Amino acid sequence: MNEGALANLRVLELGQLIAGPFCGQLMGDLGADVIKLEPPGTGDAMRDWGRGVPVWWSVIARNKKSATLDLRKPQGQGLLKQLVEKADILIENFRPGTMEKWGLDYAALAAINPGLIMVRVSGFGQTGPYSQRAGYGSIGEAMGGIRYLAGDPDRPPSRVGLSIGDSLAATFACVGALAAVHARHTTGRGQVVDSAIYEAVLAMMESTIPEFTEAGLIRERSGAILPKTAPSNVYPSSDGEMIVMGANQDSVFTRLCDAMGKPEYATDVRFADHLARGENQALLDDLIGQWSAQLNAEELLETLETHGVPAGRIFRAPEMLADPQFIARKSIVDVSHRQFKNLKMQNVVPRLSENPGAVRWAGPELGEHNDEVYGDLLGLSVAQRAELRAQGII
After folding, report:
1. 10-204+329-390 has which CATH code?
2. In 307-370, which residue ranges form alpha helices assigned H by DSSP?
3. Rounded CA gap, 75 and 360, in Å?
4. What is this structure's pTM?
């Protein structure tokens, strides 16, 4: 099996839940040797998360090795420093100041390994008046702006049904870490990657800031549409299924008009260009909906595909598992699992042509790799490891 593009990088992952560990998942997916360090006895709280059965751990901790370590104890901190000597990247998502309290700040760790890259994911970043506050993903989503825009205009702000703020901060953290690895080839030095959840969300907010500063516009909740961008909405079919359709570009809209049997719409002054369609968005959506409701979902999709109009169903897990595109690209894979045998989960993204990543194994048992990490990597004897276990250090 190809080892993956990051196979020569060793990553130490501290912290728990999502914001830091998803960064580690991304690196592990692409081949990095990720050592997940968890509190002895309890482990990452993520081990117990999941609806129905606790399977989330199997995804977010895939491709990682689990070793236990109590960072609150001096001996545990000493062992971490030994591991830092052999690491390229350290990921942590504790509240800012925690690593400093333990004597594990970047200056102390860089003195041991000047090439170390320290990835720090937090609610508000490592600096500023809010840096010491507890910062969950939901707060970052609210302050970063996405919560205000989520939902229907006649209701209070909603949320995406996923931990999008945590995952965005982790993704940007991964990008920053790999940029720091690249910079290290030139400088020989590591650095700190500071990824704040609210800023990761803010980075996705398109032109909302200059829209306000230059035009006094505050973008509002718009539900299923993008204001002034039409047609781009969900439309009914005769069998009750809602189909997502996007035809706001002039050439695509012309093709949609042909599909509808209404080629004259393409030159109608109300719809002839992007600005006109935006001004008459509700009318246009109503006309398209009247047409789409005459066809069942399959007929509608076939007609749109024939005319080159982007469209698709709204998928849930059952539809994903049955869809030929997902199957052909192996977008969902079976992973061997001690409890569930072949556990299905999403595959690695993105795809690299020469050395792609892979889901090599599901989330490990707590401390499953203690002997490998402390024995093979650090060279501690069986007796030394037994003593550390007895003291609750590992």
Report:
1. 3.40.50.10540
2. 317-322, 324-328, 370
3. 32
4. 0.94
Structure-token pair, residue 341: 């045998």
**Residues 79-106: pLDDT tens digits?**
999 999 999 999 999 999 999 999 999 9
Q: Which of 358, 351, 332, 331 is nearest to 343 (CA)?
A: 332
> In the chain, what are the domain boundaries?
10-204+329-390, 232-315
- Residues 171-202 have pLDDT tens digits of 999 999 999 999 999 999 999 999 999 999 99
| Helix, strand, coil percentages in the chain from 3-state DSSP, rounded to 5 | 40, 15, 45
Give the Å distances, CA to CA, from 177 to 11, 185, 195, 273.
11, 13, 10, 43
232-315 domain in CATH 3.20.20.370? no
> 311 CB contacts (<8 Å, ≥6 apart)?
243, 244, 245, 246, 300, 301, 304, 305
In 3-state terms, what secondary structure has residue 386?
helix
Side-chain half-sphere CA neighbours of 191 within 13 A: 17
Residues with catalytic function? 166
DSSP 372: I
Establish whether domains 10-204+329-390 and 232-315 are of one fold. no
